Amino acid sequence: MVQRQISRTVTAGQQVVIYVMFSVITATFLFLTDIGTDQPFKANLIFYLMLLGSFFFLVIISFTTIYARKLGGEHSARFFFFTDTPLIKFIIWVPIGLFGAFAIALVSQNLGLDRTNASLISIGGSGLIMMIIFFITKSVLIPMVIHGFFNTLVIALREGILFSFTTTNDLVPIPNVGITTPQINQFLTDTIIQFSLVSTGEEMLKILVIAFVVLGIPNAKFKDGIAKYIGGFFALLIWTSFHTITGL
Q: Whole-model pTM?
């Protein structure tokens, strides 16, 4: 019985580990291609540290028994976000999340607001959609994938790759890492970066903020009560503020 419980604890979240490993390997390769540049190198470094710092700090604290109990997920998993996700959940929730985030972005551009306020509504609204889906599915991978598709779609519209999208504002300010790889088409490079580094790093940072809030509230556990939703609120607030620095 104990052996089975330990097995579930170790194996739960294998998909998350593999995805993060893929992100690190891919981002490192692209990182090295622009090591001699200034802005792209710095931007890549920020997202790289965001991903690695958030993920490994969560891994470290999970091995402390009291923290593991507070942040534990279902099926004896040490991490509340370490939920292996069946394919059907991706098929259902990724299109729903992408449509919802894109709809909010479109509406925000037609409210008669200035660029800053319209962008904040677009960022906060799309982030809220992804956060709700995270709490419903209990999987961080689905918001990561939605986030990657959403950013890629906005870039494609902005660059006129799908069709011309002309407006006084972008749908939403997307962090531009600025990496160029001569061997790879620029849009393909942007797509890889959005999936492997930007969306992964930003969503992992949200998870770190949620964990920080849950740990900071006495007697709170992720599986019980409203602490996780309070954490989600602050994660969105910090994430939106982050975009006002890098994107607006």
A: 0.82
